[in-house]
Amino acid sequence: MSKSEICVDVQNVHKSFRRGIEVVDVLNGLNLQVHEKEFVSLMGPSGSGKTTLLNLIAGLDQPTTGSVYVRGDQISAMTESQLASWRTRTIGFVFQFYNLLPVLTAYRNVELPLLLLPLSASQRKQQVQTALDIVGLSDRLHHRPGQLSGGQQQRVGIARAIVTDPALIVADEPTGALDSKSADEILDLLGELRKSLNKTIIIVTHDPRAAARADREVHLDKGQLVATH
Amino acid sequence: MKYAFLIFETIRHNLIRTILTGLGTMVMVLVVTLVFTVLSALDRATTEKQKNLKAIVTEKWQIPSMMPYSYASALSQGGAAADDPDAARPEDAMSWGFFVGSTEENPAKRSFENLFFAFIMEPEKARTMLDEVDSLTDDEAQPLLAAIKRMKDVPNGVIVGQERLDKMKKKVGDRITVFGRNYRDMNLELEIVGTFPREPARYADSSVISRDYFNRQLDAYQNSHQNKPHPMAEKTLGLVWLRLKDRKTFSKVSEQILTSPSFTSPPVKIETSSTGIGGFLEAWRDIIWGMRWLMAPACLLTLSLVISNAISISVRERQLEFAVMKVMGFRPSQILILVLAEALLIGTISGFLSAALTYVAINGMGGLPFRIAFFPKFAVPLQAFWWGPAMGAITALAGSFIPAWRARTVKVSDVFARVT
Question: How far is CA B161 from the centre of its chain?
Answer without folding.
Answer: 16
